[in-house]
Structures are given as structure tokens and as C-alpha cells.
Amino acid sequence: MVAIPITRYISIDSDEFVESFARASGPGGQHVNTTDSAVMLRFDVANSISLPDAVKQRLFKIAGSRLTKDGILVLRSEGARSQLINRQEVRLRLIGLIREATIVQKKRQPTKPTKASQKRRVDSKIKRAVVKAGRGKVRD
Question: Is residue 72 part of a domain?
């Protein structure tokens, strides 16, 4: 059980996620047929005791299709030929996703339009109305 630091206040235990290994697809010759270098990491977001509820909710939104219906985050890495490098990469991606979920977006404060912009808008509407009025039927 090793604690993996995410932020200053949040860390997850290595017991909370499960890594499984498979053979990676793609080229690699005879070596690829004998080693399980692809890494699949499963992290149960819904039942995690390390993450606050607010972070879990934001993580659900960020994860998208990488999240199962049961609330399990599934990440896969098979880019490198080395299992160790793939394990490091998939863990870094998990840490990055959780860090991204800790950031709270600021609420947008709507601003009022300036007097000048309101005047420009009304003037352009009046100008357009005059143009359209000139397209009417010609009367004798």
C-alpha cells in the first residue's frame, strides 16, 4: 500500500486501483508475442475513499467515455514496448485527470453592455429598417 500524491491535500492508495496486463497490438516482431506490455488501469471513482465528493462529480464529467456505468475509470496504455513505461504513463494520466477534477471553474459574471454599444446596436437596426423600407412597392 503506497500513497500516490495527487495534490497537497489529496492522495490515493495504490490499493484503490487495479492494473492488469495484456499483449499490446501493433508491430514488434517476435518479442510482442511473448510479453504483456499493455497496461489497463481500473480505478473505482464512485467508491473511492480518498476523493472528496466534489472532485468525484467533476471527474465523472471529465472522464466521459473512459468511465463505465458502475463508476469505474478505465485507462489503457500500450504505446511503449516496456511494461514499466506503460505503467508509469497510465498512472500519470490518472493523476492528471484527478488533478484536473480538483480545479473549480469560476462562475462567469455577466457584464452589462456599454451605452455606446447599445447606441451602435440601435443605430444599425434603424439603418437596416430604412434599407428594407426602400424595397417596398413603388406608388404613383
Answer: yes
* Beta strand segments in the chain, E: 3-5, 11-13, 17-22, 38-44, 72-77
CATH number at residue 9: 3.30.160.20
| 102 contact partners, CB below 8 Å, separation of at least 6 | 6, 7, 10, 55, 58
**Each residue of 15-45: pLDDT tens digit?**
888 887 887 776 665 655 566 778 888 998 8
Cα 78 to the center of its chain, rounded Å: 20
Element (H, E) at 112: none
Q: How confident is the model at residue 51 (pLDDT cuts 50, 70, 90)?
A: confident
Residue range of the domain that includes 69: 3-102
98 and 10 Cβ atoms separated by less than 8 Å: yes
Cβ pair 23, 33 in contact under 8 A: yes
